[in-house]
Amino acid sequence: MEHHRLLELLLNTFGIIGIQLRPLKLNNSINILNWSINLVINLATLYVLNDQKPFNGRLTRLKSSDQYLMYYFIKSCGLFIFPGICLYYVITYLIYGHRLFRHLQSSTFASIQISLQDMILIFMAPFMIPTVFIWLRSFLLFDSYNLPTFFAIQMIVLYRSITWILLYFIQLANFRVLEQIRQRYLDDDIEKQAIELSNKRKCQSLCVRQTSRCKISASFEKFGKINEQQPRTRHTLKNQSSIIKCRDLFEEMKNLAELNNRLQPICSILLTIHMVYTSTVVTITLNDVAMADFPLNLYYFSDIIQQMIFWFGLSTMNRKVLQNFNRIEGFMLRKLRKVRPNQTLPSTTMTTSTNSSPLKCSKVLKFKEMNIYQQSFHLLLFDVLHIDLKFILDWICFIASYATLIHQTRGMKIQMEN
């Protein structure tokens, strides 16, 4: 199977430095070596993340300011949350990484072309932006860490980067496929003729207003004679053309929706891990900003900025995908609006049909139910939550409220170990 250029680039970069993107093949020595190297890298990362020394400066500062809730929150992050996030990334890509790539290499996405500039941007932005912001945070006094810890953090950055790349690629692929479908069916010659006919009628109506009643009568009499020649035949052929077009369009949309249904469970797991990481980092960052009396310093706000850039960007792309879907659905409804349920069409007009029996239009009215596939194009968390702009804003407000609660809770007498 031929790989997309971007997917091939990911396999040959991220796939050999710790992230498992290929299935295990016991009869392939290179594949076994790749698995072994990735496993060693991941085990070393998990071991380094269990080191609590990088958190000592921050914990001491929190203890001195009587912020006990934040103290235990940071301690939980070091002991459980950050190692757990990395562990879930490792397990998810070990189990689902090759399946995700297999789905993305399907024939449905085969026609997607990404320019070299876009591919470089998609590949570099999710990796370079977090790396720069991590480097900026190293200037903060309570964020000093040694070299092994820095590389362990970079491993989490790699997992987050490839996850963002794949999530954006799925949205971009859906957008491009829907654009191609829309161009094939909505911008064809029939639609152009309909627009031209509509323009002619508008021009005729304007001309009619300026003519005399005699000319109006003559024009309508001549127009009536032309239209009376074969009205029924033309109406039947128009219905047949609409049904054939809607049938082909329905099948293409169905195939694309089924592919998205196979991708959604995997993406839901990755989005959940992303949300836990973002919630944790933003909570810690907001507390740091409050402790520093809200300074106008990019170092403090760097994590929040880069997190929101990726979330709002993904939500915007998904909104464009849904807009394309709605346009296509509206086109199909307009095509089927004049089809009568009791009408019977000869099967000879259906060029790809193998059934010689007549086709009843009532059978094609199911095409109007294409909106059931809209759910397949949403950003979903296990069919429970829709991730859109409203959800992201509510989520940010919740995190801000939680961070405020933790920051303002002080002076509690809790026995803490030295």
Largest sheet: 2 strands, antiparallel
* Rg over CA atoms: 30 Å
Mean pLDDT: 76
Per DSSP E runs of 2 or more residues, the count of β-strands stands at 4
SS field, number of helical segments: 12
| Number of structurally distinct domains | 1
Strand order of the largest sheet: 1-2
Quick structural summary:
Keywords: Membrane, Transmembrane, Transmembrane helix. With 418 residues, this protein is mostly helical.
List the topology elements.
Elements lengths: L4 H9 L15 H21 L6 H9 L3 H37 L11 H22 L9 H40 L2 H22 L2 H15 L3 H61 L6 H38 L8 E2 L13 E2 H4 L15 E2 L3 E2 L2 H20 L10
Antiparallel strand pairs: 1-2, 3-4
Helix pairs in contact: 2-4, 2-6, 3-4, 4-6, 4-9, 5-6, 5-10, 6-9, 6-10, 9-10, 9-12
Keywords: Membrane, Transmembrane, Transmembrane helix
Walk me through what this model shows.
This protein has 418 residues and is mostly helical. It has one domain (5-408). Helix content is 71%, strand content 2%. The protein contains 12 helices and 4 strands, in the order ααααααααααββαββα. It has helices at 5-13, 29-49, 56-64, 68-104, 116-137, 147-186, 189-210, 213-227, 231-291, 298-335, 361-364, 389-408, and strands at residues 344-345, 359-360, 380-381, 385-386. A two-stranded antiparallel ribbon has the order 1-2. Strand 3 (380-381) and strand 4 form a beta hairpin. Helix 3 (56-64) packs antiparallel against helix 4, helix 5 runs antiparallel to helix 10 and helix 6 (147-186) runs antiparallel to helix 9 (231-291). The longest helix is centred in the middle third of the chain and has 61 residues, at 231-291. Keywords: Membrane, Transmembrane, Transmembrane helix. The chain crosses the membrane at residues 32-49, 69-96, 116-136, 156-175, 263-286.
